[in-house]
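Deviations from the work plan: none for this task. Representative record:
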Amino acid sequence: MGDGAGGGERAASGVLDRFRLDGRVALVTGGYRGLGRAFAQALAEAGADVAVAARDEARSVEAAAEIAASTGRRTLGLRMDVTDRAEVEAGVRRVVDELGGLQVLVNNAGTCIHEPALEVSDDHFQDVLQTNVRGVWLPSQVAAPHLAQQGPDGVRGSIVNIGSISAMIVNRPQMQPVYNASKAAVHQLTKSLAAEWAPMGVRVNALAPGYVKTEMAPVDEPRFRRMWIEDAPMQRYATPEEVAASVVYLASDASSFCTGTVLVTDGGYTLH
Ligand code: NDP
C-alpha cells in the first residue's frame, strides 16, 4: 500500500473535521434575517450552539427556535443593537451565561443607504458609520476577553467581520459613498485587531461578499440589474448559502492559520 506520492502510509488528515464547530458557541449580530440568518443556520449545521442577536428581540427568538428545530443545536435569541454598548455587554454576558462560553463572533449587522454624496445628511453619515464600524468594534471589544479563553476543545476564538467588495471597488450607479468607506474601515479594523489579538489566540478575519439578494441589495431592480447581474463574470448573484460556507471556513479550524485575511467571495466580480 502506498500513497501514490512516494511516501509511506499516512494517517487520514481529518480535513473535513476541521470545518466542524461541535462544542463551540457562536454569536451572529443582525442574525434573524438576510445573510445573518444564513450564517446562523450554517454555523449551527456545522455543530455550534448559536445566539441570534438583533434589534428585534421577538424575531431573534423566533429565528433561534427555528434554527434549533432544524439542527438540534442549542440556540438563544436576544436583543442587541450593535451601536449600544450596554446592550452589547448585556447580550454577550447572556450568551456566555446561558450557552456556556463564546468561541465565534460574526459581526454581520450592517446598513446601507443609496444616496449621491451631495445629498448625504449628517444623520445618514453617522448612522452608517455607527452601525457598520462601531457595530463591529463594540461587539469585538466586549467579546474578546471571552474569545481569548480556551473553549471546551482547547481552541480559542475566531471573529468573522462581514466586510464587502464595496471596500475595494466603486460601482458608480450605486451611490453609497459612506457605506463604501465604512466597509473599507471594517477591512482595516480586521487587520489591526488580528495583529493585536493574535498573541492571545484570537483570530480576526473579514469576509468580502459580492452581491446577494437581500433587503439591502435588491439585485432584481431594473436600475441595478445590469451592474449586479449582467456585468458579473458569473452572470448571477450569490446564494446566502454560498457566502455562509465562507463564514464557516473562517469561523472554524479549517482556517486555523488565517488571521487578518479578507476572503473575497464574489464570483469574480472584483476581477474587472
Ligand atoms: P439586510 O439589510 O438584509 O440585513 C441587515 C441586518 O443588520 C438586519 O438584520 C438588521 O436588523 C441588522 N442591523 C442593522 N442595524 C443594526 C443595529 N444597529 N444593531 C443590530 N442589528 C442591526 O442586509 P444583508 O443581509 O444583505 O447584509 C448583512 C451584512 O452583509 C451587512 O454587513 C452587509 O453590509 C453585508 N454585505 C451584504 C451584501 C449583499 O449583497 N447583500 C454584499 C456585501 C456585504 P434590523 O431588521 O433591525 O434592521
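The longest strand covers residues 203-209.
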